[in-house]
């Protein structure tokens, strides 16, 4: 007990210090973020962009799809360009061409090398010079650059408008004509994209050859290359990771671990009778399966748009379901079904752990279910309506699609979801309260379950921190608090604690051992994970020290994954501990799959892009998608499915249970995911990385690469993996249908295997 208290103390200290540093970094980002000018003017006094247009342009872009339609500073979707890189390259080419024709009377490409070199040097000096006047709040451009800016701005108004000459380009970008319909919004949109490009090119005050985005994106025309710090801290982070892994392996080898206890002769949960609130959670799990099917369907459509930008095998589907909507649903439903599975698991196990069914608990579980259903349906419908009917920026922010990846639902729905999560924590806490008060060997695990649930509910408040007019750098800062700390942080702690608690209840691990292990694992994970959030913010207009902190602590995130294989092997051994454990075989195998994908998806693929030097060239390319698919579904998705199966085992008629359907479900999901990632996404990411390193980020995201024969072939090579994966989801749906359709009398125990059913 003394050792456990010390671990809890260390956990509290690490969390307090880490969040203090993270908050300090946020304050520094706020103070040093790229300035938003009141006006952008030419040297002769002409106003190119007036006061408020950068802010209005940001809102216009977000309401048109935002991060579901290309990226800014590397964050968003992968078919359309990174607009900051695209503008930067177009403006540089336009300005250079103006000088070539005026000064030499010829196109730049027709000039001799010495003349080209002179213009390139002049171009770098012009575009890297910081002409922002803080007192006046203006950016002043030369007359020639103003001409170039006007030309690129016209391209953007034509592109986001309805110019017929750009129909083919829009199809390549998977964007519809009239993405922005309001005339004032359309005029303002180029101001935001120009500003994002200006911040990426111009030198910070007092610095040379170092832009506000630490020289991201790679653009050789103006010598936008990785900073020295990006290289140094990348090397340091790799050395730290290797040393920390070695230390952890040595510590594990030196530690004397207790062997698992002798398993009980019979299933300890054999006679568990679900309470009314536990039975009420069953419908949550069927909705989870429905959301999985919808998410996979939208994923198929979204991936296909990478080849036929407006059509689905010839049918003009984008007229009613544009890319921005299908991708929003695909990413949003992924988070929602995983979260719903975990929320329902908490509501199911709480009364089982405490043996206490609070008054009106079933009513609360039912109210929460219909509230969550209302939020899912309402936010999806309003997001679709706002995008298709172009309801405008206010509608998009409050009710429709905010245009932010993984956090796209309108603010009203975010508020309702926050209230719903607090209600969930209340339901969970009141059911766990007797177990929290009562001294027991497993109380530490129960406390961890409740505290992580409290963080899940409380930290969703970060979705309410940015406003409609917030600086884009601050939006990204707070968005990653939500995505990284909420989804990748506290949900993982919650799930890990729940799994440990389930194993102790089954008598497969010792409660005292699990208590110490779960606190220690949480310390190791959060020590790197909290400040590791900053690896998402290297190039979003942040101070340069963000690269140092993010690189070092994100390297530490990989360290605990080095022993995941050992834990997976021990779980596999536990699945064979006694004949009755086979009743939980597929749940345990899902937990083992989590270990595999944690190592591969979060570890190998994650660290392949997490160092500053790697992310500099690969941010916003398909290597990010490979990591995202392998980690999000492989880790969190398989966790959700494993928990779902465990709970349904105790809620379903034993005669309706079918391991023969779960077997192909499990293998199809994992094999299909592996095929999708390693046959298509990883090769596509490597090819794009080559294009980014050799030529520039603009080229890696251009139609010349995205719609090259090789890239489109790699998109088609997703089909076999997608089909195998989809078959796995259909087996899961068929399994659920069997549970619903067969209304046989419930036997004494719902935990028998098919073999035991005779």
UniProtKB/TrEMBL annotation:
One CC-aspect GO term: membrane
Pfam family, any one: NorB_cytochrome_c-like
Transmembrane residue ranges: 230-255, 284-307, 334-353, 365-385, 412-433, 445-463, 483-506, 518-539, 545-566, 586-609, 629-648, 669-690, 723-741
Gene Ontology terms, MF aspect: cytochrome-c oxidase activity; heme binding
SUPFAM superfamilies membership: Cytochrome c oxidase subunit I-like
Residue span(s) of domain Nitric oxide reductase subunit B cytochrome c-like: 37-218
Record's keyword terms, sorted: Membrane, Transmembrane, Transmembrane helix
Any Gene Ontology biological process: aerobic respiration
Full protein name: Nitric-oxide reductase large subunit
């Amino acid at each position: 007990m003394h050792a456990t208290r010390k671990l809890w103390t260390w956990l509290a200290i690490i969390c307090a210090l880490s969040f203090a540093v993270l908050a300090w970094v946020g304050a520094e980002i706020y103070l040093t973020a790229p300035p938003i000018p009141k006006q952008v003017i030419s040297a002769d006094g002409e106003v190119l962009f007036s006061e408020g247009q950068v802010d209005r342009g940001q809102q216009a872009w977000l309401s048109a799809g935002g991060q579901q339609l290309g990226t800014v500073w590397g964050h968003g979707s992968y078919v359309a360009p990174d607009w900051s890189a695209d503008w930067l390259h177009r403006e540089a080419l336009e300005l250079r061409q103006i000088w070539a024709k005026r000064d030499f009377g010829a196109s730049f490409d027709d000039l001799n090398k010495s003349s080209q070199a002179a213009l390139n040097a002049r171009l770098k000096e012009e575009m890297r010079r910081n002409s922002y006047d803080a007192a006046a709040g203006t950016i002043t451009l030369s007359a020639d650059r103003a001409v170039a800016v006007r030309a690129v701005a016209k391209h953007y108004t034509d592109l986001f408008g309805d110019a017929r000459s750009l129909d083919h380009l829009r199809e390549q970008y998977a964007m519809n004509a009239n993405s922005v319909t309001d005339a004032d919004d359309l005029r303002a949109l180029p101001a935001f994209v120009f500003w994002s490009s200006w911040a990426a090119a111009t030198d910070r005050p007092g610095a040379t050859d170092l832009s506000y985005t630490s020289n991201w994106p790679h653009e050789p025309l103006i010598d936008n290359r990785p900073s020295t710090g990006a290289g140094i801290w990348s090397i340091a982070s790799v050395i730290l990771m290797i040393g920390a892994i070695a230390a952890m392996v040595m510590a594990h080898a030196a530690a004397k671990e207790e062997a698992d206890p002798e398993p009980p002769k019979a299933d300890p949960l054999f006679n568990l009778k679900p309470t009314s609130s536990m039975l009420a959670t069953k419908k949550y799990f069927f909705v989870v399966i429905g959301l999985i099917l919808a998410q996979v369907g939208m994923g198929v459509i979204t991936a296909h748009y990478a080849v036929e930008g407006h059509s689905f095998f010839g049918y003009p589907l984008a007229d009613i379901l544009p890319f921005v909507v299908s991708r929003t649903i695909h990413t949003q439903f992924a988070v929602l079904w995983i979260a719903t599975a975990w929320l329902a698991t908490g509501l199911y196990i709480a009364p089982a752990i405490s043996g206490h069914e609070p008054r009106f608990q079933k009513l609360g579980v039912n109210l929460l279910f219909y509230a969550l259903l209302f939020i899912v349906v309402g936010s999806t419908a309003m997001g679709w309506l706002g995008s298709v009917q172009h309801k405008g920026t206010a509608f998009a922010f409050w009710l429709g699609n905010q245009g932010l990846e993984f956090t796209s639902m309108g603010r009203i729905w975010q508020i309702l979801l926050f209230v719903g999560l607090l209600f969930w924590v209340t339901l969970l806490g009141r059911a766990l309260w007797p177990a929290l008060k009562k001294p027991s060997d497993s109380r530490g695990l129960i406390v961890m379950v409740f505290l992580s649930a409290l963080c899940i509910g409380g930290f969703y408040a970060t979705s309410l921190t940015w406003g409609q007019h917030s600086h884009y750098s601050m939006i990204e800062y707070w968005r990653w608090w939500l995505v990284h700390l909420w989804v990748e942080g506290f949900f993982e702690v919650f799930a890990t604690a729940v799994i440990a608690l389930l194993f102790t209840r089954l008598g497969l691990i010792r409660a005292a051992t699990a208590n110490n292990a779960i606190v220690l694992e949480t310390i190791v994970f959060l020590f790197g994970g909290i400040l590791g959030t900053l690896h998402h913010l290297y190039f979003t207009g942040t101070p340069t020290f963000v690269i140092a902190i993010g690189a070092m602590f994100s390297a530490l995130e990989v360290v605990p994954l080095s022993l995941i294989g050992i834990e997976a092997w021990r779980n596999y051994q536990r699945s064979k501990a006694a004949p009755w454990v086979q009743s939980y075989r597929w749940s345990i195998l899902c937990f083992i799959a989590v270990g595999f994908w944690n190592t591969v998806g979060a570890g190998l693929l994650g660290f392949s892009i997490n160092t500053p030097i790697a992310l500099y060239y690969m941010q916003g390319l398909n290597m990010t998608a490979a990591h995202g698919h392998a980690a999000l579904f492989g880790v969190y998705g398989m966790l959700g499915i494993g928990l779902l199966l465990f709970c349904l085992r105790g809620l379903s008629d034993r005669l309706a249970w079918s391991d023969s359907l779960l077997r192909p479900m499990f293998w199809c999901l994992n094999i299909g995911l592996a095929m999708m990632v390693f046959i298509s996404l990883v090769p596509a990411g490597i090819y794009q990385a080559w294009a980014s390193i050799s030529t520039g980020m603009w080229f890696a995201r251009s139609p010349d690469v995205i719609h090259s024969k090789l890239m489109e072939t790699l998109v088609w090579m997703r089909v076999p993996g997608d089909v195998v994966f989809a078959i796995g989801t259909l087996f899961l749906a068929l399994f659920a249908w069997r549970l619903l359709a067969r209304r046989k009398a419930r036997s004494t125990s719902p935990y028998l295997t098919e073999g035991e059913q005779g």
